[in-house]
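Batch manifest, entry 17 of 40.
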Amino acid sequence: MRFLAKTLSFLFSTLLFTSAFAQKPVEGSYRLNGKDGKLAYVVAQKGEPFHDMPVTVLVFTEKDAGRDAKPDEAARTGRFGDALVARLCKTDWGWDVLGAEWVHPAIEGSHHASSAGIVKATDVKVANGEISGRLKTDPGEKFLGQPTEVDLRFHAKQP
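Output type: structure tokens
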């Protein structure tokens, strides 16, 4: 009985310790015109190929979009709160962001806009059924004439 209690105590402590240090799916900043957007989740889905090169669509959201059949479309409408939808393309020289769609409270009107060439991908890795990396903007970048800062580290299940 003592052995069982010690074993269960050890297993519980180990589980508690590892979950306390588990990597979050999204970490970093999503700021437009000095206003922080909230992103806590990321879903990767297969996109349409670009010139025969594979595309992965990363859907960053404030609320969990993982169970939605088309999270990218739902995110664009604001259904999951703040969002950033980025189309990543695997090229011969690395990973490029083909474009991004922003859902952010600092965007006037619909709170939605699209961009190209503003968000960059670095450190992208695909291994063990996951895609991970970093999306960022250059220092001093502007989007819609407003100061913009994206610096997100992510990891998600591969589509």
